[in-house]
């Protein structure tokens, strides 16, 4: 089964907490702090793997978690860093942030990597909070929380050549004789319901050819195999449009040509700009020479190169492949439109992390929030005066009290940070 789309949850590792420990030495207040730092949490990293062809593995497993960092230890020993989680995906996979809908990375080259969820930073041990006034800090820094997000994985095959055409026109047969691929072939519609790839070896050179499932009218709206087919031809360098010119199934080859190209245009007009050559297949079964001549005249007016072939008997296939190789070797990539990418700089670990915000909650309480504030808050030892002062000084220095007063804060009002509440008194 070919799976080309999946939705998974990824969770990085939480940073280890800094340690609150003290040396045991005479003539040193409480022995002096010696708490080590917590280890950083592991990150979730995607890597493009050329040995994978489908997203099947993600059909059965939906949650992926990296290892958390170890807490700091006494004697200034650091906690162990959490192990990164490497997730292998096929080359050609798009990684999309579900919440924003923005592309995080196009994994189009073997070995491409993306740190999709950065591990939480380890917290500092209490040794870092000693100063001339605070000789024995009874608090340390909590490790940063894990990063969790939902990502969409969407696979678009990477092939040099895409085979176009209605069902049962001979695309699978052409692929089988041109490459070592062994697609399922039978005389009924929609034999191919999954993409097939094969490597064409010719003149000591090679290129990848993809026979992708046939389309019907309305494919651009999702009818039939619809967009599942169309999206896989976006990366190809050129197209071979396979058309049954024998009329063996009552089809009109000119109308087939028009309908397929109309679907391309309505899905993405840029697909019509790709080099497209015509493989006039089943030439050995043609009985109506007049209809064939009309088709050839029409293609000449369209400016298309036509190669009469019989995939079943291999007639004309070598000439078709020679021209295909020539087109690929002279291929000039078009300029790609710029698209908005996911901005990691605006992720919560970066730009907005130190931002402090104040607002009035629905119940009338005054709330403070912010990434760095919450990290300090979670590190606070509420039984230690020095730790409480450290938290309060951070709020004051960042303008938190002034922001709350602008919102109407007065003595006796409730101030809330996460689930912790206290009454405000102006000293």
TrEMBL record:
Binding site for Mg(2+): 172, 192
CDD domains with a match to the protein in the record: Obg (cd01898)
Domain annotation Obg: ranges: 1-158
Requisite cofactors: Mg(2+)
Residue ranges of every copy of the OCT domain listed in the record: 345-426
Keywords: Cytoplasm, GTP-binding, Hydrolase, Magnesium, Metal-binding, Nucleotide-binding
EC nos: 3.6.5.-
Domain OBG-type G: 159-329
Entry GO MF terms: GTP binding; GTPase activity; magnesium ion binding
InterPro entries cross-referenced by the UniProt entry: G_OBG, GTP-bd, GTP-bd_Obg/CgtA, GTP-bd_prot_GTP1/OBG_C_sf, GTP1_OBG_dom, GTP1_OBG_dom_sf, OBG_GTPase, OCT_dom
PROSITE patterns: G_OBG (PS51710), OBG (PS51883), OCT (PS51881)
UniProt record, GO biological process: ribosome biogenesis
Location in or out of the cell: Cytoplasm
Tagged with keyword Metal-binding: yes
Family: Belongs to the TRAFAC class OBG-HflX-like GTPase superfamily. OBG GTPase family.
Subunit structure comment from the entry: Monomer.
Protein name as annotated: GTPase Obg
Record organism: Mogibacterium kristiansenii
Upper classification of the organism: Bacteria, Bacillati, Bacillota, Clostridia, Peptostreptococcales
């Amino acid at each position: 089964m070919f799976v080309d789309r999946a939705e998974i949850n990824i969770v990085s590792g939480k940073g280890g907490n800094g340690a609150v420990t003290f040396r045991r030495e005479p003539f040193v207040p409480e022995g002096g702090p010696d708490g080590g730092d917590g280890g950083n949490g592991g990150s979730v990293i995607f890597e493009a793997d050329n040995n994978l062809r489908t997203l099947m593995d993600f059909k059965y497993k939906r949650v992926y978690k990296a290892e958390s960092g170890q807490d700091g230890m006494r004697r200034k020993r650091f906690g162990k860093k959490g192990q990164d989680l490497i997730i292998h995906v096929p080359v050609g996979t798009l990684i999309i942030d579900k919440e924003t809908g923005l592309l995080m990375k196009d994994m189009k080259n073997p070995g491409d990597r993306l740190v999709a969820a950065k591990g939480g930073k380890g917290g500092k041990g209490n040794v870092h909070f000693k100063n001339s006034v605070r000789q024995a800090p009874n608090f340390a820094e909590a490790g940063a929380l894990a990063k969790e997000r939902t990502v969409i994985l969407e696979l678009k095959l990477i092939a040099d050549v895409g085979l176009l055409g209605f069902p049962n026109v001979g695309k699978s047969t052409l692929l089988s004789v041109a490459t070592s691929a062994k697609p399922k072939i039978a005389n009924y519609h929609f034999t191919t319901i999954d993409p097939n790839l094969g490597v064409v070896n010719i003149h000591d050179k090679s290129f990848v050819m993809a026979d992708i499932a046939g389309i019907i009218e309305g494919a651009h709206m999702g009818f039939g195999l619809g967009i599942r087919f169309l999206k896989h031809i976006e990366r190809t360098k050129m197209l071979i449009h396979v058309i049954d010119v024998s009329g063996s199934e009552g089809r009109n080859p000119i109308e087939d040509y028009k309908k397929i190209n109309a679907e391309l245009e309505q899905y993405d007009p840029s697909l019509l700009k790709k080099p497209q050559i015509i493989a006039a297949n089943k030439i050995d079964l043609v009985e109506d020479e007049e209809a064939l001549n009309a088709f050839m005249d029409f293609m000449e007016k369209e400016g298309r190169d036509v190669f009469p072939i019989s995939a079943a008997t291999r007639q004309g296939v070598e000439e078709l492949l020679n021209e295909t190789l020539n087109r690929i070797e002279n291929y000039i990539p078009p300029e790609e439109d710029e698209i908005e990418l996911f901005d990691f700089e605006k992720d919560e670990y970066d730009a907005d992390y130190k931002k402090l915000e104040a607002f009035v909650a629905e119940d009338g309480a005054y709330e403070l929030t912010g990434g760095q504030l919450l990290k300090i808050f979670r590190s606070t030892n509420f039984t230690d005066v020095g730790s409480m002062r450290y938290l309060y000084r951070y709020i004051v220095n960042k303008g938190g009290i002034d922001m709350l007063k602008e919102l109407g804060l007065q003595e006796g009002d409730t101030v809330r940070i996460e689930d912790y509440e206290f009454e405000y008194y102006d000293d």
